[in-house]
Write a structure and sequence with these properties.
3-stranded parallel sheet, 6 helices
Length: 186
């Protein structure tokens, strides 16, 4: 989850993740007419594929799904695995899409199987949700103050106790790979 400064921060985190990485679901506060262009940009720059979310998209290895502007993104699970719902809704924590909505659904659906990352952004959207994720056993990462454009969302998450590791932006992608490899060996 990210807001102010997040478009570039997200790229720095996911750009070099290998195509064998688990699916990634992103909420970046952005107007509706820009989210598809942003997803296309990620698709060109990243080793993983990327697309703007559509209702019932499957969360698959090697795929990044970006929340569509004006649509909340939630994580769901069925017998085939994880998928997303992309639905119109009222603003939550001042936003649609809301990071809290995504993280709350990930806490309920994936729990300890999830990894939550909160990046630069104004306000507190995502802080409550990532704290719930951590309480459910998920590994959580917050961007540190020095590397944020705006140290709001990660600061609030940290203050609430929602962050396991607080890291500089250029270390988060490596931390994801390390944690995934460590989990795979268990």
């Amino acid at each position: 989850g990210a807001s102010t400064g997040g478009t570039e921060a997200i790229i720095r985190v996911v750009k070099d993740l290998p195509p064998s990485s688990p699916g990634i679901v992103i909420v970046q506060h952005m107007p509706a007419n820009f989210t598809n262009l942003y997803a296309q940009r990620l698709d060109k720059l990243c080793r993983m594929s990327a697309k703007e979310a559509q209702d019932f998209d499957r969360v698959e290895e090697g795929r990044i799904i970006v929340a569509a502007g004006d649509y909340h993104l939630t994580l769901k699970k069925d017998a085939r695995g994880y998928f997303v719902r992309s639905q119109k809704g009222e603003k939550v924590s001042g936003h649609c899409p809301s990071v809290d909505v995504l993280f709350d659904s990930a806490a309920d659906t994936a729990g300890a199987a999830a990894i939550g990352v909160i990046l630069t952004g104004m306000g507190a959207d995502g802080a409550r949700g990532i704290t719930r994720l951590r309480q459910k056993g998920a590994y959580t990462i917050g961007q540190d103050k020095d590397s944020c454009v705006v140290y709001g969302m990660p600061m609030e998450a940290y203050k609430m106790g929602g962050i396991v590791r607080q890291l500089p932006l250029d270390k988060i992608g490596d931390e994801l790979i390390y944690h995934l490899n460590r989990s795979a060996r268990k």
